[in-house]
Amino acid sequence: MLIARDIEKRRLQDAYNSEKSEFVAVYGRRRVGKTFLIKEVFNSKFTFLHTGIADAPTEVQLNNFSSSLTKAGLTLKEKPRNWFEALDSLSILIKASRKKGKKVVFLDELPWMDTHRSRFLAALEHFWNGFAALRDDVLLIVCGSATSWIINNVVNNHGGLHNRVTHQIYLRPFTLGECERLAASYNLRMSRRDILMNYMIMGGIPYYWSLLQKDLSQPQNIDSLCFTRGGEMTDEFNKLYSSLFKHPEPYVAIITALATKKCGMSRDEIAEAAKLNDGGKLTKYLDELEQCDFIRRYTMIGKAKKGSIFQLIDSFTLFYFRFMKSHSMTTGPIWVKLQGKPKFNSWTGIAFERVCLIHIDQIRKRLGISGVITTVHSWQKKEDETPGAQIDLLIDREDGVITLCEMKYQTGKFAIHKKDSLSLQNKVDALANSLKTKKAIHLTMITGYGLAPTEYSSMVQSEVVADNLFDD
């Protein structure tokens, strides 16, 4: 059953119902559900369906393409010797089709087909410009997990495919609310606490959620998947980055550097830590990691864009560096035993913050400012004569308010005691003194289960709880 994806589904249906040929690029990270979406929308009824093979040479790719042509009903006198002949054969198949309406051609894992010196892209340009675009009945859908390849070579192509893509669909990970619906569709009996905890580990990647077993508890499931020999996710980190990037080493170096700094790093700090000195390529790497939702780029409020800070935001990657990497050679009930320990509690605080940063729209909705123009920032002040301050989420609003969000996670209600109140007031004061703004600064607490009443709780203007993050 297709969960969510209503907008993406409608865009695919609109492309099918249009009165001209359409070229649609669908991309997104590994296991996010790209192929599933396309097959569900079209009920697997394609004029032609083909999937590239990972790490296979051109000859193998062409042989595989020939097999797909044969399965689709085309009789080949001889196998294509290159991609021009292969896609010419596809043109013949389309012209021979008696299907009314759009002929849907789905090329899955397209980046794998573009092997060294294969001239695949040139052949694809020839197929679209010289055949498909001249008709009104072709819907070409290309798809791939190598997001950077799709963006650079198809969406932003500067050659024969320039501006040829009529629709681009980036499939983002699910939100908490969508994961709750997905879990229900799998008959997983989970509390919202379990769902939140799983999201803090796996993020909103539908395939990961499909691996959960309904007869295991939340900690048992994570042990089974991540800390058991042969577990489905024990090698996922390496597979994830190698599937997205043909040369994953510099991307992993950047992610590894960012994993050491909770609040993020500047571009120069990343270059030094990751030992990447080529300015142009580093910009490309950072842009592509941001496009894949692994990192976020933010500016300090009141600072220029050139002072951007980059922060690791992907839940699974954070979990890998905090726990899986150090336990890669051990097996057993590791996650069950870590529950409630200091390392576990420290991680939940950071992971909860990341979940909040992914659900800004839900926070804005809870605050009643969905219709207000806002920009999102973080801010920090280094310690000098006065205490330092770190604010991970600021919402700068056009209605004369800056919302300072303090994110805290614990298993029960959060109580603001004297020490907490002094820290919070220091953040408000430091921010006000730094910005010298005329806007009011409102303190918002985002917690798992709300605030316990104390003599200091009145300093908070508004509250957001984990349940609010589940809103659509």
Summarize it.
By secondary structure, the chain is of the alpha/beta class. It contains 20 helices and 15 strands.
Based on the model shown, name its key terms:
about 475 residues; alpha/beta; 5-stranded mixed sheet; 15 strands; about 45% helix; elongated
What does this structure look like?
Helix content is 43%, strand content 17%. By secondary structure, it is an alpha/beta fold. The strands form 4 sheets. The protein has a 5-stranded parallel beta sheet, sandwiched between helices. Strands 9-10-11-13-15 form a 5-stranded mixed beta sheet. Helix 3 (58-71) packs parallel to helix 4, helix 8 (176-185) crosses helix 9 (192-202) and helix 9 crosses helix 18. The longest helix has 18 residues, at 418-435. The protein starts with 5 loop residues before the first helix and ends in a 7-residue tail after the last strand. The model has no long low-confidence stretch (mean pLDDT 93).
Q: Total number of β-strand segments?
A: 15
Radius of gyration: 25 Å
Mean of all residue-level pLDDT scores: 93
Q: What would the principal axes of the Cα set say about the shape? A: elongated
Total number of helical segments?
A: 20
Helix amount: 40-55%
Alpha-beta classification: alpha/beta
Unreliable runs, pLDDT <50, ≥5 residues? none
How much β-strand is present in the residues?
A: 15-25%
| Largest sheet geometry | 5 strands, parallel
End-to-end gap: 18 Å
- Widest β-sheet, arrangement of strands: 2-3-4-1-5
Topology:
Blueprint (H helix, E strand, L loop, with lengths): L5 H12 L4 E6 L6 H8 L6 E4 L6 H14 L11 H14 L6 E6 L1 H4 L6 H11 L7 E7 L2 H9 L11 E4 L5 H10 L6 H11 L3 H5 L7 H9 L9 H9 L4 H10 L6 E2 H8 L4 H13 L3 E4 L10 E4 L2 H10 L9 H5 L3 H17 L1 H8 L6 E8 L7 E9 L3 E8 L5 E2 L2 H18 L4 E8 L3 E2 L9 E4 L7
Parallel strand pairs: 1-4, 1-5, 2-3, 3-4, 11-13, 12-14, 13-15
Antiparallel strand pairs: 6-8, 7-8, 9-10, 10-11
